[in-house]
Each structure stands twice: as C-alpha cells, then as structure tokens.
Amino acid sequence: MISVTVDQLKFKKQLSMIEQIALKNFLYNWVGGSSKGLDDFFQLEYTVDVFAKMEKTTNDTDLLISDDYYFRYITVTENNQIVIGVLDMNSELKHRIITREEIK
C-alpha cells in the first residue's frame, strides 16, 4: 500500500450502486474472505460527508490491516484509485492507495 496525504487525492462525491457493491466485494476478497460470510459481522454502509465512501459504521468488530492499522472506510478517487482510510495505533487517520500489485 502507498501512503498519501488527503490533499493529494480527489475523492468522488458520489458512488453508483455498482461502485458501492464493487468496493465492498473488493474489500472482502482482499482480506481473504467472501462477501457472504464477512457481511454478517463486518458491515459497511454507504455514507457521504465530504466525499462518498463505504464506511465501517459499528464498533462491534475491528479489521486489523498490516498489524498496525484499523480499517475505517474504502472509497475510490476520480482517477479510479482504490483508497482505504485507516487509523494507526495513535488513532490518526491515514490514507492508503491499494496498488495493482496487491490486487490478486
């Protein structure tokens, strides 16, 4: 994953239903599961604040990524880059671009 600052990214203001489903399925497959099983305990909700995203809205379950980051949301930029928002161990929000090499 590539670390970037938020000012380097231009997020989409809205996500189509197809983009929402694709991001959700991508995340579930990327972490090594299927959307059917993970959806029961790790739910994502479409939210639009400053930008559109598929966000973890409950605090029941955390998804630990790379042993250092807790997943918050997944979104896509206007250039169609997949970006995840994560919290580090100091609860600071970080953004990571998921590169093509990481996509299997």
* Number of beta-strand segments: 7
- How large is the count of helical segments? 2
Q: How far apart lie the N and C ends?
A: 14 Å
Nearest-angstrom radius of gyration?
13 Å
Number of domains: 1
Structural class assignment:
alpha+beta
Tell me what portion of residues adopts beta-strand conformation.
25-35%
Shape: globular
Q: What value does the average pLDDT take?
A: 83
pLDDT < 50 runs, ≥5 residues: none
String of helices and strands:
EHHEEEEEE
The helix content is 10-25%
- Biggest sheet layout: 7 strands, antiparallel
Describe the protein in words:
- 17% of the residues lie in helices and 33% in strands.
- Strand 5 and strand 6 (82-87) form a beta hairpin.
- The chain has one domain (2-102).
- Strands 1, 2, 3, 4, 5, 6 and 7 form a seven-stranded antiparallel beta sheet that branches.
- It contains two helices and seven strands, in the order E-H-H-E-E-E-E-E-E.
